[in-house]
Amino acid sequence: MQVVIPLFPRFTALDGIGPYEVLQRIPSIDVTFIGHERGEIRSENGFLGITADGTFEDFPHPDIIVFPGGVGTRPLQHDERVTDWLRTAHETTMFTTSVCTGSIVLGAAGLLDGLTATTHWSCYPELQATGATPVADRVVEHLDRRIITAAGVSSGIDMALRLVELLVDRTAAEAAQLMIEYDPQPPFACGSVAATATAGRTDDVVGRVIEYAQLRQ
Asked: Which residues are annotated as catalytic?
């Protein structure tokens, strides 16, 4: 099975690397990072570069698409090269998936019209503008449409484990989980908007998120 993970300037690293770490553990799955051109592409803060080994045109009919998010997805909504590729590729994929704001690109390509979908909690209005109905679930599946969307950043790992179960079987997914020792036990209870509210930390934590996001722009 051929998995492609599109890269673009200012992508969020874990959106792509999280699913990659799961999927590349399975012997029957090959993973290739692709982009507009071959070569190094830098993440949203510029600290990390990953090499794209192919272009969109090199992979017109991949088995699986995992579209990551990041600030760089905004211009992709209007990039016909990307949206046309997505529409055409999706016709023959086994699954077309996204992590974080990658779902906004799927939506811009018309793949989420009338469907529930998810993205990073701060970007629900942008997702809704594409014709999708945002929901706060960590992973949203429409198996009859071969569409799976994951929420922000780390949720891509959960989505990829589910994808392995669908593509291979449950034991393969559990083996991948054990290989990467994915057993989250975070020291804080602020991993979602709802959990942050329950912990009584909304004002402080969301305020800090906004502060840091502005400083990183």
From this structure: 100
